[in-house]
Amino acid sequence: MRTALIRRPLALxxxxxxxxxxxxxxxxxxxxxxxxxxxxxxxxxxxxxxGIVTDYTASSASAAGSMSFKENNVTTSLGIPPxxxxxxxxxxxxxxxxxxxxxxxxxxxxxxxxIKQNVSQSATTxxxxxxxxxxxxxxxxxxxxxxxxxxxxxxxxxxxxxxxSSNICLALTVNGLGQITAGAAQAxxxxxxxxxxxxxxxxxxxxxxxxxxxxxSLAFSLNGATYSYxxxxxxxxxxxxxxxxxxxxxxIAPVSTGNVIAGSFLLATDFTTNVVVCGVLHDYHAGTANxxxxxxxxxxxxxxxxxxxxTGDVMAISSxxxxxxxVNGLGQxxxxxxxxxxxxxxxxxxxxxxxSVATATGTPVPATATATPTNTPVPATATSTATATATNTPIxxxxxxxxxxxxxxxxxxxxxxxxxxxxxxxxxxxxxRIVVHVYFATxxxxxxxxxxxxxxRWTKSFAIPRNTISQYSSVAVVTFQIxxxxxxxxxxxxxxxxx
Length: 499
What we know:
Elements: E1 4-7, E2 14-17, E3 23-27, H1 34-38, E4 42-43, E5 45-57, E6 65-71, E7 74-80, E8 84-86, E9 97-104, E10 110-117, E11 121-133, E12 141-145, E13 148-152, E14 158-159, E15 167-174, E16 180-187, E17 196-208, E18 216-222, E19 225-231, E20 236-238, E21 248-256, E22 260-261, E23 266-269, E24 273-285, E25 293-297, E26 300-304, E27 311-312, E28 320-327, E29 333-342, E30 404-409, E31 413-415, E32 419-426, E33 433-439, E34 445-451, E35 457-463, E36 475-484, E37 487-498
Parallel strand pairs: 4-24, 14-16, 27-29, 31-37
Antiparallel strand pairs: 1-2, 1-20, 3-8, 3-10, 5-6, 5-9, 6-7, 9-10, 11-12, 11-15, 12-13, 15-16, 17-18, 17-21, 18-19, 21-22, 21-23, 24-25, 24-28, 25-26, 28-29, 30-32, 32-35, 33-34, 33-36, 36-37
């Protein structure tokens, strides 16, 4: 465990730099190292949670285990699949305040996770509320104040009354993942100094410890930008390891005007989890140079790190996507490539149904009496109109709608320079237009346009290019789209590229 503390005399201001060694969740057959973890890809839902561990039951070769966290009176229970274990974590962790960043499968079981000790930080940030989505007991919320976005932990509620466009100061507490766990709002009188919580992961490019009379400095490189901060004079640093240029750290710090760190802050070892997350897109905002972004797929909201945007297919609300990317030590998406899986379900105009045709009845013409000079009565003559015969107009059957019976990739793991084979079987026989895109982790794309054969089958063999493995991911996403009678259908597959 790495722990570093910066203390100022007489407790006038406490700056705490605390870095915890991450505990790695891995398969028992894997090497117990962060390097082994970062070479894998995990498909599921990203989970970021802190709280008191109320239960820990290790899994065995034949039985699943479990782990539960409680924060804000909300208990979240996660399963642990058989043969999966935490390195350095055991039953004694119950009662500890911890944070977990990881991936869970469709059954709510952890398939990848890092665990570290939870440390809370405080700040008061002021400005206009630009956006606010309250959290629930199962989903993170988000609030944007003065252009800065912060995630909100499960079950968090705020004291005070405010809404969108309110100008407030929010005294807040954030946990070890930068999520707001408590907050009290009051009107912004413009006299309260605004302290902005900075939540970033990057590589240390500058570090100078403060002395009794001189300030220190700490700078990070992230997405091509440099983030520099001043450490107040009079602080001291202690810990189990040095802070060195070139190290990857995550920092949560209250920062005042002039980028001066204004109180205790957290510095923890960074780590990366490679993920594939799929779902219906409900919201997306790219990260800016000074504010987090976010993406909500299905019921899962994932913060996006500073200066990060999702590349790949254009993101459209209500469409279904798979995002291949990497999550950092604060649970933020630090890279992502989106692949469209399905367009929104359109409301089809129903075909007209057969309706009865009214049968015309003969309408008698009123009799006309004609007087004659001889006063001889002339009988009235009634004339009827012709009767129309009803006919039923046949309704043609609805046209076939595009669909897939199956799609596949031949090799789930394949080396660069060798050939992969893609196959699709349409739901209907006959030639149909098909478009296939292959998205590699580096952003490189390959596209194929063609038609299925007379049996509705399409296949394509191609060589895996070089430069298709990024530092964060090696997974490629393949999207298949087929067209028939002005309709289309989509499906997707993935495979992993190795050197």
